Amino acid sequence: MLSNLQPACFFVILVLCTHLNVVIEAEKCLKEEFHEVSVQSDFCKLEIAELECLLSSDEITVAYESNVFEAVTTWVKYDAENRKKYFLQLFKHVRLQLVSLDYISDKVRTETLVRESPECRDLVEDAFHVYVNPQRFKLQTVRKGEMKSDAKVGFLLCFGGCYLCMYNISEQIWTTWTLPSNFNLTFTTAVSLGTCTYFCGGMDNNQPTNRVLISNGSIFKPIAPMKIARINASAASVCGNILVFGGELSTLHTFSTGHKDASFHKITDDFEIYEPDKKQWKVGGNLLSGPRTEAATVVVKERVYLLGGYNSIQEQVYPSIPRRIKRACKLVDVYEHSTNSWTSARQMNHMRASFGAAALDNRIYCVGGYQDSNTQVATSEFFEVTAGQWTNFTWETPWSGPSSACKCGGKVYALGSADQSLYSLNSDEEDWDIHSIEQNLPNCQKVIPISWRSI
Ligand SMILES: *[C@@H]1O[C@H](CO)[C@@H](O)[C@H](O)[C@H]1NC(C)=O
Ligand SMILES: *[C@@H]1O[C@H](CO)[C@@H](O)[C@H](O)[C@H]1NC(C)=O
Ligand SMILES: *[C@@H]1O[C@H](CO)[C@@H](O)[C@H](O)[C@H]1NC(C)=O
Ligand SMILES: *[C@@H]1O[C@H](CO)[C@@H](O)[C@H](O)[C@H]1NC(C)=O
Ligand SMILES: *[C@@H]1O[C@H](CO)[C@@H](O)[C@H](O)[C@H]1NC(C)=O
């Protein structure tokens, strides 16, 4: 890790470590969260050159770029009279493209040090424009630990029920463990942001739950619950926020025959947003095309694609017991978080729910799933984002039905939950490579990339 570092920065980190009196070894210090280091009082004793060198580095470990902004203001305010003149010089190193728009509006734009400098105000204005017109700006690189890009992430997590299984991709090692006994991840959706993973909703004691658990690999703890209990919702992380779309709620279902059943649920048509800075959920609004559950989400260029899912329920009385059949759709709706607006994209070729979707190189791959709650799908297709075209795979998946997929380290991985296996896409060979021959993945329904640093 240290070999990637410029010699000058290596020196600065050594100096910083000595300042902080924490450790003698620079490597240990680097592994510390930059944020943790930056809130210690000795941090303010750094020289301007030392600080600037750190701020310009991709190697400092931060979960949120907003931590870098806080470090800069703290350092300047420690001796405002003498340090104010350096603010612009340091502020230029804050990668505003990686900071959420809400944070920029609430914290950056209103900061006196920013308001007093026309150049700083211009940088803030640019940051807003990036969200509207990203192609006109050079993209800022993501620092270690930030989850904007997952190029450095080499771990996958497969989970379901009370079971989690982690896959170290480079060494092809599986590690399994059991959740703390009071937690259960049945029909839970999960997404990683920075070095944490958020597990949202699901079924608990046969009831839908609004519980949200956060984990960094060593602890699991509940955080603020969602506003609504959701089963099989779809989650995405974008601009430093967690978005949770649709899902099913608990309600007493009355069939047209008069038969009532409490185990039937209602598909929701709304979404909510978690802002880690504020530690709370807020109402997002309605979905563009009505109710949706077991849909898939992928993020491409800060836009969330909400794909497929069940959007209607029909009753069947067969042979005499009423039961309900969910129907999947082909819809693709695109949510732009910065403007809180929706647009539609071209529909998929096949209707799919509980399927896997992952974005790689400007393509969105969709695999498997159900077309109605009785019929599995064994085909796959991909969407060319720029051309707006869907293309069917010419070969079948080696598994059928419910799937989950994600991108990690430049590859698309898919979990076939019916045959409990993990595959990676090998488009050259028009095939899927299997990764779980010696590993059982009992009850696993989802696969996501994680960045838990202690592993
Ligand atoms: C996992 O892989 C990384 C390289 O990506 C390696 O450094 C690490 O030691 C491995 N960890 C385990 C637990 O196998
Ligand atoms: C987890 O919850 C599901 C649904 O409520 C239940 O069927 C399952 O038995 C639970 N698993 C454990 C290990 O408690
Ligand atoms: C792609 O698949 C869908 C559904 O499986 C089918 O209706 C459509 O004809 C296929 N398109 C092509 C070009 O083969
Ligand atoms: C949640 O999704 C799984 C498939 O991933 C499905 O088997 C299950 O029935 C769904 N749960 C509910 C309550 O609809
Ligand atoms: C996870 O969080 C706990 C509590 O905040 C902390 O003690 C622990 O060091 C963290 N682990 C990692 C790997 O960051």
Distinct compounds present: 2-acetamido-2-deoxy-beta-D-glucopyranose
Determine the number of helices (DSSP H or I, runs of at least 4 residues): 10
What percent of residues are in strands? 35-45%
What value does the Rg take, in angstroms?
24 Å
Name of the top-level CATH class of the largest domain: Mainly Beta
- Oligomer description: single chain
N-end to C-end Cα span: 15 Å
How do the strands of the widest beta sheet line up side by side? 3-2-1-32
Briefly note the structural class of the backbone. alpha+beta
Looking at the overall shape, the CATH architecture of the largest domain is 6 Propeller
Helix residue percentage: 10-25%
**Contiguous runs where pLDDT drops below 50 for at least 5 residues:** 1-8, 21-25, 148-152
Main beta sheet: strand number and arrangement? Answer: 4 strands, antiparallel
Task: Name the CATH superfamily assignment of the largest domain.
Answer: Kelch-type beta propeller
Shape: globular
Kindly state the number of beta strands: 32
